Fold these 2 entries.
Entry 1:
Amino acid sequence: MADADRMDTPEQAEFRAYCRQWLSANHPGQPPVRIPLGALELSDPKAMAWLQAWQKSAYAAGLVGCDYSTAVGGGGHTNCQTIANQEMQSARTPFLPNIIGLGMAAPTLYIHAQEEVKRALLPGLLSGAEIWCQGFSEPGAGSDLANQQTFAEKRGDSWVINGHKVWTSLAHFADWMILLCRTDKTDKYNGLSYFVVPIQPAVGKGVTVRPLIKLTGETGFNEVIFDDLVIEDKYRLDAVGAGWKVAMTTLAHERGAGLLVTPAAGGMIQENSKSANTSSPAALINLAKSSSRNGKTAADDPLIRDEMVKIAIRQEAFRQNQRRTLVPALTDHPMRIPLQNKLIGTEFNQDLAAITYDIQGPASSLYLNDENAAGGGEWQLAYMNSFGVTIAAGANEVQRNILGERVLGLPKSK
Ligand SMILES: Cc1cc2nc3c(=O)[nH]c(=O)nc-3n(C[C@H](O)[C@H](O)[C@H](O)COP(=O)(O)OP(=O)(O)OC[C@H]3O[C@@H](n4cnc5c(N)ncnc54)[C@H](O)[C@@H]3O)c2cc1C
């Protein structure tokens, strides 16, 4: 987007110029190890360490936690995190690995934690020194999130936690977890409470983390079992029984509508320089030009050209739709566009990834580590991973229900 279209305030324009200048001098360059397509697929400790070093330097330069108060380790700006995110994306820097911490835990802590807890935990979260994970889903509580069975029992000034979480991304690296659990078995919604849990020191002593392998062969998420884990009461966020309300702050951010609630600490940017390639129509065109088809290239095939034009139009429509949020006269419902983001973005990426199979033809069966695979097989990896994100953060079917009920005012689904 051209700077003239951005409508920055003078403070934002100055901050943007600063980010650009800093990023041009401090881009971390090519990683020494393979970085996966997104933070949810991180499993190599060396990749994690390299990305943590990158987050630490971006934080020290003021590009992370920009809109948080200086008292809790933030930059003290207003509406500047989006600028830093845009500039990091333009500079094609790697993703920030503490994605759940920045995108969900920080905004939730910012609103609901005691001041002492915020001051103690937010600096380590923002710098990436301490990695966070999210313990919401359970074997019987995914879309029906309020059906939590993990139980926290009050004993004196502490809580004793027992239960089973699943699909817990990054738990294998995590120091901390945001945890939704039950504190009262008689009331489905008012019987929930919300905690932050220091899980790393408890691994093997009340916490078991078991990796789950995805169809791509990667380990990104885990099962987490709590067995009589004791935590202090100060790690409860908000009142006992207010867990559902606190979880709604987290979910608003997870589903792309959080900025209406509280600032995000670092955005949900997931793309590294390679995945930026696997999620842009421009990269698709390059792939088509280099893929052979009946003595010509795939880019000469009218059916492929048609598919590529359609996806490019959808991307432009998405971009223009976003710009409507800047024009009050076009904002008929405050949640209409923010709540669409996760749905539209994940389905766009899935459809774009599917076209790469048509473009490559039989060569799309080649995978990572095959020297003949286009782009090192990352296109195929991106295709398979594109399914998980339509389920993560609440399945898209459920997201459609939310849009129908809360934005369009349709009757509730039964
Ligand atoms: C890549 C990935 C990362 C994840 N990371 C985390 C994490 O870090 N922490 C965490 O807590 N969870 C995580 N999850 C879990 C995720 O939040 C759940 O998978 C999701 O909420 C769906 O729940 P479920 O898997 O139990 O499916 P179910 O709730 O059993 O749903 C099964 C199917 O039924 C459909 N369905 C269910 N209810 C309705 C309805 N009312 N109307 C229409 N259709 C419906 C769903 O859309 C889905 O297609 C992750 C998931 C993925 C894929």
Entry 2:
Amino acid sequence: MDARLTRLSCRDFWGAVASLAMPRTCLVCGRPLLLQEKHLCLACRADLPLMRGASLPQNPMADRYNALVEKGPYEYACALFYYSGAYRNIPRAVKYGADLKAGRHFGRMLGETLSASPLFQDVDMVIPVPLHWTRRWRRGYNQAAVIARQVALVLGCPCEERLLRRIRRTRTQTRLRGESKAENVRQAFRARAGKTGAVRHILLVDDVCTSGATLASCQKALRACVPDGVRISAATLAFVGE
Ligand SMILES: [Zn+2]
């Protein structure tokens, strides 16, 4: 028998055993998944509200981010999909449900979307939005780093997790509105100077972009440590539209 077929059937067999022990369900509609489906059923995968902004320098997320950032070149920004309806379950599962497999899966999809765009081809460093160490310690992981590592892997550049630090513990952004969000994360981050070397294009990665205040606060901290010509773009799994 063809070796590839044997490998496939072994994987299917153990996949079926795992599904019986712990049924896998679609993150969006909750239906049981078929063996070939990963995290989403075929119907929900087909309806994923893709943002399709990766090749557009100006899109709703880039406009929101650029309105808040420290001036430099016009920064690029995009998300994989819109944070809408039950698709909100995807980032929630990664952040609160410790579904790191989903985080890696959608992180890889985000990376593939960025690598297909001419705007992100020259990214030479990926930086996840950091958690304060107390929150990181309690949660056990940083969901932004789980996503960022996959993005860096696809783009073929390093994922730098020690350059940016969250120096202030901020309230969770979820229940705050516009102005309070910006106030909440103002000066919450600090970048270590001298660690960026010859970097030309940094990509900040987070799970969700809501007001853009967190990403902008990170951009400001980094902007203070890098030469003027360095672009500091942003990418997230989901974007909260109007
Ligand atoms: Zn579904």
